[in-house]
Amino acid sequence: MFGGLCMKGLVKETIAMSIIKWDPDMFSVKDPNIDDQHKTWISILNSLYNNLTAKGTAAQSRKILNAMLEYTQMHFATEEKLMLSIDYPKYKEHKVSHDRFIDKLTGLKHDLDAEDDILGIDLQHVLESWLKHWLVDHIINMDKQYSAYLPAK
Ligand SMILES: [Fe+2]
Ligand SMILES: [Fe+2]
């Protein structure tokens, strides 16, 4: 449970429509735990997308965004611990990328918390123009780089 949301429910909702589809060739970092976390991250993003495109409620969108923030913090902490455990040489720049994303996502959450009508903000545009691209780009260009340093499983 994250932010009152059941992950199973989120995954179910994504069957309706996906803005990103899990593709092992494209996204796998060859670590089953991290891959599972990335799958969940993608399902949260898809859930938000479905909520916005299916004209869900503002309360639901707020809940999903809170879940996204909490899940992202947990995921980044997992990755950072992993990178430190293998003395990953690009740890610092990777951590900066994580920190910048958390700052931006927290800023978005605060903006939305202060807004009565969050569906009046073009959240779908934020999702399509920033969140989706950041996630895909980060996994492919940064997370997959530490993959080469992981011991074979
Ligand atoms: Fe990362
Ligand atoms: Fe990641």
Automatic annotation (TrEMBL):
Q: Which residues are in the Hemerythrin-like domain?
A: 33-146
**InterPro entries recorded:** Haemerythrin_Fe_BS (IPR016131), Hemerythrin (IPR050669), Hemerythrin-like (IPR012312), Hemerythrin-like_sf (IPR035938), Hemerythrin_metal-bd (IPR012827)
CDD domains (alphabetical): Hemerythrin
Which GO MF terms are attached to this record? metal ion binding
Keywords annotated in UniProt: Iron, Metal-binding
This protein is called Hemerythrin-like domain-containing protein
- Family, as annotated: Belongs to the hemerythrin family.
